[in-house]
Design brief:
CATH topology of the largest domain: Rossmann fold
Order of helices and strands: HHHHHEHEHHEHEEEHEHEHHEH
Number of strands: 9
Helix content: 40-55%
Number of domains: 3
Length: 353
């Protein structure tokens, strides 16, 4: 019995030492003292103790690995921003200008008010499928040198997916936001809320309520996950949302968003995107060189719209990737050394309807 009691005390002390070594908010340390005291009370019942011990150990593992005070260093250089945006996106000059304006404001805030928290706007990219909403959001993280957390909202039907579940329930765990923060290891990531208009009808109101708290600068500095049960400051995160349309987004949420419309691409714009951006990347991904696969200028329109008009570039991207895969297979099998896709053979490389 003495040995068992000694083991229990040693295990409790391990948790205390682990918590003491971490940088935690003072208020959270007070909560931990209550948990440790509860473990001591349960020490007389070995079964109860070990059940509570496992839950407490899991909780401490989560809170000691959250970036309560760890931030990444921002890149706030408008020339660098323009260069990176131009490298990743064709056209869209108005949208690029808006992003550069936001970067400029953040840079001025940092220069003129050092030490103060910077507040970024919450951007909502609206546009049809394939118009570059998600990739533009990823580019914002890239140009700022920030980590990215992407949260898909398509079909989301349970607000606990965002908020987490209380520790009183078996198998409880934090929500996707806290899990993402632990993964990226900083408290100022770009958080992409993807397709916020596509949540399930049954959970629309409750999820919109969580979004209000997330996006409101007066509230998100005390965002509380049910599992962590202690406020986490999200005020330094840069939120970006996307949607196809705004009809299903609550007015209270829209009031906290700055809407940016993503335009549809013309055929000429998509040809430029295909030639300058998508084709070189697809060649690289397929292990091909530019000399091994060439696409005749005369057939690019057929590559762009084999099935008619498409607002975005996803179909174009799939078509180009398909051309590269077929060519890679032919070269790997030793049937050819290079391919030139033109009017004479396009039907062999692309489906035709």
């Amino acid at each position: 019995m003495v040995s068992i009691a000694l083991d229990i005390n040693q295990e409790i002390q391990k948790l205390i030492d682990r918590a003491a070594a971490a940088q935690l908010p003072d208020g959270l340390r007070d909560k931990l003292e209550e948990l440790f005291q509860q473990l001591r009370v349960n020490a007389n019942s070995e079964t109860t103790f070990w059940e509570n011990y496992q839950r407490t150990a899991s909780y401490i593992d989560w809170i000691t690995n959250l970036p309560w005070n760890k931030s990444s260093q921002d890149i706030l250089d408008v020339n660098y921003t323009r260069e990176k945006l131009d490298a990743n996106h064709y056209g869209l000059d108005t949208i690029k200008d808006r992003i550069i304006e936001y970067i400029s404001v953040l840079a001025l805030q940092k220069a003129r008010h050092p030490g103060e928290k910077m507040r970024a706007p919450v951007i909502l990219f609206q546009g049809l499928v394939g118009t570059g909403k998600t990739t533009m959001a990823k580019s914002i993280a890239d140009v700022m040198g920030r980590k990215l957390i992407r949260i898909p909202f398509g079909g989301l039907g349970d607000p606990l997916y965002l908020r987490g579940q209380s520790r009183i329930y078996p198998e409880a765990e934090p929500g996707i936001i806290v899990r993402g923060l632990r993964d990226v290891g900083v408290n100022n990531p770009v958080i992409l809320l993807d397709e916020i208009d596509r949540v399930a009808d049954s959970a629309l109101n409750t999820i919109m309520g969580v979004l209000v708290e997330l996006l409101d600068p007066e509230q998100n500095n005390k965002f509380t996950d049910h599992y962590i049960d202690y406020p986490f400051d999200l005020s330094q995160a840069f939120f970006v949302a996307t949607c196809n349309n705004t009809t299903r987004i609550a007015t209270a949420v829209m009031d906290r968003l700055e809407l940016i419309q993503m335009p549809s691409y013309t055929d000429d714009e998509k040809i430029n995107i295909g030639q300058k951006y998508l084709f070189p990347r697809a060649l690289q991904d397929a292990g091909l060189t530019a000399s091994e696969l060439q696409i005749s200028d005369r057939i690019w329109l057929q590559v762009v719209r084999p099935l008619g008009f498409d607002a975005g570039v996803r179909t174009l991207k799939r078509n180009i990737e398909g051309l590269c895969r077929k060519t890679a297979a032919l070269i790997f099998e030793g049937k050819v050394k290079k391919v030139v896709v033109d009017e004479s053979n396009i039907k062999e490389f692309m489906p035709q309807w």
